[in-house]
Each structure stands twice: as C-alpha cells, then as structure tokens.
Amino acid sequence: MPFFTLRRDSDQISPDIVRKLKAAKDAAPALQAAGLVIESLAKRAFRESAVRPAPWASLSPATIKDKARRRKSLAVLIRDAVLARSPRITSLSNRAVTIGTDRSYAVYHQAGKGRMYRPFFPFDTRGRLTPLGRDRVEAALRRKLGIS
Fold first, then answer.
1. Rounded to an integer, what distance in angstroms lies between the CA atom of residue 38 and that of residue 136?
2. Does 1 score more than 90 pLDDT?
C-alpha cells in the first residue's frame, strides 16, 4: 500500500534540487536515496518518539493487560513488530520513488481513526513531509546529486 510518492518535480523539495533532478540523466539513484531516508525514519518512529510526525496515544489498560497475557511487546504499536518492519520502497523509477507498506491496517494508524492515530511515516495529514523528513531527504538528494 503506497503512502508517499516523491517525484523529481516535487514542490516539497528545494527548487535547486528539483532542477538537478530534472537535469539528471538517471535520477533513480538519488530518488532511491531519498526513499531509503523516508523508510528509515518510518522504521525509527516505532522506537524513537522524536522522529514521529505527531505524539502517539498511550495504550489503554485493557490493551496492556491483553498484550501482557499474550506475552507480546508492551510497546505502543508493536505486537509482533510486523508493522514496524514493513515500511519500504514499493516503486522506483527515473521520475519518482514511492514508499509504503504491505500492511493494510497501517493506513488507520498513519491517517488516523479515533485513538488509532499513530503516524510513523514522516509526513503530516496533508501528505507533506515533516521538517525533519524534508531536511533528511534534501540532505540525501544533495549528496547523491553532488550539490553542496
């Protein structure tokens, strides 16, 4: 399930980077680097609250009791760590990189559904990169494109 697509002509990255991406004979390596940054931030969000786009609600007492009874992790949003391992690049071309997950329920956490709003991909509810996400993506793109 795709969550985020970064195109080489995106308005979410600096115009100088967009120009370099458009001029690149093969933009795929740079876009892949940006995608790997987003994938990494999404995976880190399960362990590090500082990289989350928004705070996560605590587990309810009933959920804690159930997880303890079933000997599952008491960490928020981690039962078997399947969702935490699932963010990945789902599509890559010379024009765009798409990052997503194969877990159908991930959308409820990312987009929100009641107390389930626990976003882990580094973008807000409007699909815009968070400041941290943008900084890290731009740094990766600058390195790959040789922009100082």
1. 8
2. no
The residue written with tokens 């609600």 in the block is 57
Farthest-apart Cα atoms in the chain, separation: 57
pLDDT tens readout for residues 36-67: 999 999 999 988 999 999 888 888 899 889 88
| Sequence-ordered list of residues with C-beta below 8 angstroms from that of 23, at least 6 positions apart, any chain | none
- 76's CB contacts (< 8 A; 6+ apart) are 56, 57, 58, 59, 118
